[in-house]
Amino acid sequence: MSLPVYLTPIERLGFYGYRLFCYAVLFFLIMPVLIIIPLSFNAEPYFSFTEGMLRLDSSAFSLRWYEDMVTNPQWINALKNSVIIATASTLLATTLGTMAALGLSRHNMPLRNAVMALLISPMIVPVIIAAAGMYFFYTDLGLAQTFTGVILAHAVLGIPFVVITVTATLAGFDHSLTRAAANLGAGPVYTFFHITMPLIRPGVISGGLFSFGTSFDEVVVVLFVSGVEQRTVPRQMWSGIREQISPTILAVATLLIVMSVLLLITLELLRRRNARMRGMRE
Amino acid sequence: MNKSDTHYVRFLNVQKTYDGENLVVKNFNLDIAQGEFVTMLGPSGSGKTTCLMMLAGFESATQGEIYIDGTPVNNLAPHKRDIGMVFQNYALFPHLTIAENLSFPLKVRKLPKSDIEQRVKRALDMIELPQVAGRRPGQLSGGQQQRVALARALVFEPKLVLMDEPLGALDKQLREQMQYEIKRLHERLGITVLYVTHDQTEALTMSDRIAVFNEGVVQQLASPTELYERPSNAFVAQFIGENNKLSGQVEQINQDSCVVSVEGCSVQALPVNIRQCGEPTTLSIRPERIQINPDASYDNRFDARVLELIYHGDHLRTRVELMNHDQFIVKVPNGAHPLAISKGDQVQVGWHRRDCRALDAMIPGRP
Amino acid sequence: MKYEAISAGALDESQTIGTPSTNNSLKMQLRRAERWNRTRAFLLVVPLLLFVGVTFIMPIMDMLHRSIHDPLIVDHLPKTVAALESWDRQQIPEDTTYAVLAQELVSLHKQRDLAKVAGRLNTEFSGMRSLLSKSARGLARLNAGAGLESAADTREAMIRIDARWSDIQPWAAIKNLNSRYTLSYYLAALDMHYDVSGDISAQPERRQIYKALLIKTFAMSALITVLCLLLGYPLAHLLATLPESRSNLLMIMVLLPFWTSLLVRTTSWIVLLQTEGVINDVLISIGLISERIRMVHNLFGTVIAMTHILLPFMVLPLYSVMKNISPSYMRAARSLGAKPAYAFIHIYLPQTLPGIGAGAILTFILSIGFYITPALVGGRSGQMISNFIAYHMQTSLNWGLAAALGGILLGMVLLLYFVYNRLIGINSLKVG
After folding, report:
1. Which helix (H) or strand (E) segment is C350 a member of?
2. What pLDDT, on a 0 to 100 scale, did the predictor assign at position B36?
3. Do residues B39 and B211 lie in contact, with contact meaning Cβ atoms separated by under 8 Å?
4. pTM for this one?
5. CA–CA separation, C105 vs C117, rounded Å?
6. From CA C366, how far away is CA C71, in angstroms rounded?
7. Minimal Cα distance from C65: which residue of A?
């Protein structure tokens, strides 16, 4: 972008200062995420770049922390638990959340704002409060230290994301399409599965991914509600950081970053697909 | 002809209210014969779309009955009515291809696959767009989408097709072209069409009959010629075509003539819906029925002053001041012997009594 | 073809629907139909409402209940509590009260329930734990021996075991907890207590910690919110004004951290900021510092890490507001003769206020309830209210106090949530 010729030197300086500041903020945002990746290949048990790494000496890099991760049964078990819990809670949150979003999007929904505020509250209320409450309540119900308990808790934390994304998708939904389907002879059930569902599917999947990501990253509820049996990846990282921080954590962190990148790409593809289905040309 | 031919669609004393207070549709009655093209014309909010939606089953009538082919349909779900419909924004399913959109009504009717393919192909040929079968609605132009919507409403061979302002989103030229195409399809297929629009030209060119709506009431139901030539009230006269209106008072009333005084002048007119002497009335005169410098055969002749002349090619639009009324329009045809008048000229204008209709006095907002 | 003319009614202007009575029944019909439609919409939401109610709202209600429910003393020392009912707190109670307490203490000691009771009373008046266990042991020994003849003997025996029984303080402690429902946890969470005379008064200076903690939590959250706004505003502006192709690329740099695990980002800050970490290495190698500085496990590290984590929550609402501000406003202001700074302050800034409000309230709400990052990088100085809730839940096991602190935090968050809902509207809440 070239600057207009009429700017005074101070204005020019201000413009470049503003640009520089913005790039510095972007650096601040992205650097901590990216720096983990090279450090996870460190051949030494340090958390900083060794001289060898700075010289790009290949012997200074190794996969030993990744090896450690995949050979350690604790991490493998944690990964297994995380996948089970995240998948189950996502299915639960997505089903209930989508149904509720369909109701909330009807123009004649009573108490719409109050219900919405209630359903979104798990995103707003500090997790520590929810976790403390669940600690007592789930123990009374016999759900503490069970997979069911953790799955229910994670599902409720994921629900706001599903409700928000699906209601947003439905807000752009053209209701004359369901009328058209009825007019062409399709019953309500057929219309839902062949017209409504395919059109809101990108929103439903996005909501599900948000919910999955929330569960996969959740540690506070796990700390309070789960037992040793239900140790998840974040729980394992938590003790790793608290007790003695080993570079294996950096290898796990790198894997989680790769997962976030994949998640981000999927969401972007869904967004584009959604836009395309709406007939907006790219 | 049996009864269901002339009463193929029947609205009987239909009323619609959303809140129990205000009637959106007030006591609506309409009979449509099989094969007829009927248009509901009116300004937005006049209740015409509501009537269409009640027939399609998306709104329910608060009172009254709707019959299709002699059967009451009030309690029939929309998807069991077998009515084709073209929606205002087409409502083509964006995630399905054109061929899939067209086969949708056939699939839900569980037609055999080969039959479906054949019919879809025929429908695409009919709208002359065989090449778009594999595309999505978003990849088509507005005109193409419109044709596909039309084809989709016809592909399952409904006897009745509803159209809710189907041409509203198109530009003028395309709209005119589509008007002829729809008309042509209607004649070829022999279907019954109920059409909704707010565009009077569209209504006049396409319809067998037009129901003019205003504020939930049908103002007049008649053929296009009838509506234009013989409007039965001031709203219709004003809404259809261009119209000069003069407010006056009935002075004298006979069988087929009356005298109305307008600003001290006595005007000879045709009584249409006036009842007695002394009541206020609106006179309606079409601008093309007025003659400048008329001969003695005209029973109304008055002095006027030319205020403005606008050249329109085929005619000269002349605004004159007449009876203290400065918005009086005269259309002077640009014929073989053009009139030599210019701004500021004093002229005489005249019209026949039969072209000057004495209608109700239009109360603003309540025709 | 012959068409039936439309009925005369079509032109009748005075057309209304029937008499007033049919009109009313019509209204009722419409209302019934409307109610059915509303019920159908509501039925779709009911399963989720039930689910959220059971798995989320009821646990929180349970916690709030615990913050005022305190039946321990009433259940375990019922007779003493009853005997103290008429006590005036002026001088030591009657001898019979001593006898009743002695009896209850001994039986508690036998049932091994004494520790709980003593622990609870100790949070009201420190020293009660040792006093009660010492007395219970002594009384049990006496009972096993000769036994105590009269109530007066019991009193004397107790005072002989510990002289504090001649004071009114231990009695006041028991009387203060004489109800199943109490505000004492909330008072404790606000550095107050019921004193000897049963009135609410401030805790002694050295025992005051929570007021300062609340203030610190607020101050840290405010600081983090301001930092996020200062860093986020220009960035959001840049993203909103750059051409699509370039802003998309930069947007990824905002969204990737947003999507990265919280624990990963916290780990990363520990790695970066620790004494042997990358930032210290860099600062030393460029000669800016000569000695390694401690930047993590303290307030500084917490604020930096939390600002990093919450920055996207500020940038995204600002961006979506700025994206919808047409550049023609600034152009118009400039064409009317305003200098860039004037045009920015008077034209652009006011239009971004909704975004500032949304971003700031969201960031503030999220930061006052933050737990993970302060717990991992906070050290002693970076602890926030959430960390104390966790401490009382898991370590001190003073669940009532944890619940009361949770109740106070919840109150503040809900208040802000309400403000957010009023100012910006819940429907504008977006994710990603």
Report:
1. helix C349-368
2. 92
3. yes
4. 0.82
5. 10
6. 34
7. A133
Chain A, nearest residue to B85 by Cα: A183
Are the Cβ atoms of B156 and A184 closer than 8 angstroms? yes
CATH match for B3-229 among 2.60.40.420, 3.10.450.50, 3.40.50.300, 3.20.20.70? 3.40.50.300
Does residue C167 sit in the same domain as residue C221? no
B166 at interface of A, judged by CB pairs closer than 8 A: no
3-state secondary structure at position B245: strand
List chain B domain ranges.
Answer: 3-229, 234-360
Q: Which is it for strands B192-197 and B160-164: parallel, antiparallel or unpaired?
A: parallel
CA pair distance C122, C167, nearest whole angstrom: 16
Owning domain of residue C402: 210-428
B144 touches chain A (CB under 8 A): no
Q: Is the CB of C7 less than 8 angstroms away from the CB of B13?
A: yes
Minimal Cβ distance to B79: which of A177, A187, A276: A187
Residue listed under structure tokens 């504090």: C164
Chains in touch with B (≥3 Cβ pairs < 8 A): A, C
The pLDDT value given to residue C3: 36
Q: Are residues C249 and C172 in the same domain?
A: no
Nearest CA in chain B to A279: B138
Which chain A residues have a beta carbon less than 8 Å from that of B139? 281
CA B211 to chain C, closest CA, distance in angstroms equals 10
Q: In C378-432, where does DSSP find H-type helix?
A: 385-394, 399-423
On chain C, the residues whose CB falls within 8 A of the CB of A220 are: 371-372
Q: Which two tokens stand for residue B173?
A: 């030229």
The rounded distance, in Å, linking the Cα atoms of B364 and C143 is 104
Measured in residues, chain A has a length of: 282
| C196 found inside a domain | no
Shortest Cα distance, chain C CAs vs residue B169, angstroms = 26
Same domain, C214 and C158: no
Question: What CATH number has the domain bearing residue C418?
Answer: 1.10.3720.10
The packing angle between helices A147-171 and A127-140, to 10°, is: 130
Residue-averaged pLDDT of chain B: 86
Chain center to CA of A36: 19
Say how far apart CA B166 and CA B263 lie, in whole Å. Answer: 45
Residues A42 and A58 sit within 8 Å (Cβ to Cβ): no
Phi-psi map region of C341: left, alpha, beta (phi>0 left; psi -120 to 50 alpha) = alpha
Report the C-alpha gap between B33 and B187 in whole angstroms: 14
d(CA C210, CA B120): 75
CB contact, 8 Å: B18 with chain A? Answer: no
Residues of chain C falling short of pLDDT 50: 1-21
Residue of C432, C265, B93 lying closest to A278 (CA atoms): B93
CB A42 within 8 A of CB A50: yes
Looking at residues B197-212, what average pLDDT do you find?
A: 90
Probe site for chain C from B3, B8, B13, B29 (most C CB atoms < 10 A): B29
Chain A neighbors of B137, CB-CB under 8 A: 279
**Closest chain B residue to the Cα of A276, Cα to Cα:** B138
The distance of B307 to chain C (nearest Cα, Å) reads: 38
Distance CA C252, CA C432 (A): 11
Average pLDDT, chain A: 88
pLDDT the model gives residue A232: 93
Q: Is B63 on the interface with C (CB under 8 A)?
A: yes
Cβ neighbours around B5 below 10 Å, total: 13
- Contact predicate C189/C212, CB 8 Å: no
Hey, which residues 259-278 in chain A have their CB within 8 Å of chain C?
260-261, 263-264, 267
Class of domain B234-360: mainly beta
Beta bridge partners of B26: none
Q: Write down the pLDDT at residue A162.
A: 94
